[in-house]
Automatic annotation (TrEMBL), chains A, B:
<comment type="similarity">
    <text>Belongs to the PduL family.</text>
</comment>
<dbReference type="InterPro" id="IPR008300">
    <property type="entry name" value="PTAC"/>
</dbReference>
<keyword id="KW-0808">Transferase</keyword>
<comment type="function">
    <text>Involved in 1,2-propanediol (1,2-PD) degradation by catalyzing the conversion of propanoyl-CoA to propanoyl-phosphate.</text>
</comment>
<dbReference type="GO" id="GO:0046872">
    <property type="term" value="F:metal ion binding"/>
</dbReference>
<keyword id="KW-0862">Zinc</keyword>
<comment type="pathway">
    <text>Polyol metabolism; 1,2-propanediol degradation.</text>
</comment>
<dbReference type="Pfam" id="PF06130">
    <property type="entry name" value="PTAC"/>
</dbReference>
<dbReference type="GO" id="GO:0016747">
    <property type="term" value="F:acyltransferase activity, transferring groups other than amino-acyl groups"/>
</dbReference>
<protein>
    <recommendedName>
        <fullName>Phosphate propanoyltransferase</fullName>
        <ecNumber>2.3.1.222</ecNumber>
    </recommendedName>
</protein>
<dbReference type="GO" id="GO:0051144">
    <property type="term" value="P:1,2-propanediol catabolic process"/>
</dbReference>
<keyword id="KW-0012">Acyltransferase</keyword>
<keyword id="KW-0479">Metal-binding</keyword>
Length: 218, 218
């Protein structure tokens, strides 16, 4: 053995271990939580089919992400169990694909088994029927359980040390405390810092809109 | 000692220490998951009020815990929002207090805000109305969100190194992976190893009855 000092050796090993442990720091930042209740994104053509020729989305209220809004228009969803879910809100603005985002609890009511997907990734997902006051649209695909995700801008991403599409863990405290895994980082210049959870996740964690959660990198 | 290089020595010791630290962490045992849908435990007197004089619970099927069974009898629940939840099963045998266990999703439908509690701890919890074919019972208290818990016998407890009422973490893998905190250990001589989750927790984790989860001590 070389003549390294025993104390120095202990100090170096300790330092190395602590550095390794720090890489798994528990808490990297506090994130406001937004809860996404079941909702629909819709194409202009499908909106006209449901609400009549010339129909346009009108704003009920702004959402937290700039440009996004809850529309006055709603639909009734019906799946293979023939049980309706009423008053499902359409979110605007209109999109290039119609998409239905539901919780697993909703999926059980409807009789569907949608995959967990990021918004927009609807290839191969189940279809569903949407009922409006002027007509019905039956989608061949488009039903998803939205994946957990955090919206943030580049400054927030730098502050938290996270990159686009990285998955992080997020801890919620309280009686129903839990740690969500597979929370996708979504970076956009206009995004406002917010984690989006569906109602199953929110109810499992026992939280309401405006709760705070802790970002943890692994 | 051989002439091992100083840097190599530090690296090896570090590696060994980190490996040891990791071992005490993640996974201490695999637990079968049972999902508790909303249900009612009932007193003999309340059962007679709902189902008529002399009514007794009859068995639909055994549950996994010995002696426990799902009864043929069900009730309709109604809370302050005046929206019913139908076909809520009574579990037997009869108990000394009537108790209603629901998810937070159910609580929102009913218009209640029950606390997270272990079964039996109903002091100060909200009341609710139960409707049966022969009558109605209005409870002054008795509605809870059941806490997450694991049933096990003493041999299992020794194997996992856990004690009665200890809280552990339990990890579920998959697309909706998460780590449940505050999972209570319940040791009983006849208990069969099983973690009980409500439907919100199960749907947030994307799992069905019979799924497996990993016990983690902190």
């Amino acid at each position: 053995m070389s003549k390294i000092d025993e104390h120095e050796l202990i100090a170096k090993v300790t330092e190395r271990v602590i550095a390794a442990l720090k890489q798994r720091q528990p808490f990297d930042g506090l994130i406001p939580v937004g809860i996404s209740v079941r909702h629909v994104h819709i194409t202009p053509a499908d909106l006209e089919q449901l609400y009549g020729p010339g129909a346009q989305l009108t704003k009920l209220r702004d959402l937290r992400q700039p440009g996004e809004f809850a529309a006055n228009q709603t639909v009734t969803l019906i799946g293979p169990r023939m049980r309706p879910i009423e008053n499902v809100r359409i979110l605007g603005p209109a999109r290039s694909h119609t998409q239905v985002e539901i919780s697993r609890t909703d999926a059980i009511v409807l009789g569907l088994n949608p995959p967990v997907r990021p918004s927009g990734k609807i290839a191969g997902t189940p279809g569903i029927t949407l009922v409006g006051p002027a007509g019905v649209v039956t989608l061949k695909e488009g039903v998803i359980c939205a994946n957990r995700h955090i919206h943030l801008n580049e400054a927030d991403a730098a502050r938290f040390g996270v990159k686009p599409d990285q998955e992080v863990e997020v801890e919620v405290e309280g009686d129903k405390a839990l740690i969500f895994e597979h929370v996708q980082i979504r970076v956009g210049p206009k995004f406002v810092l917010e984690m989006h959870l569906d109602t199953d996740d929110a109810n499992a964690a026992g939280i309401n809109c405006g709760a705070k959660a802790w970002l943890r990198k692994r």
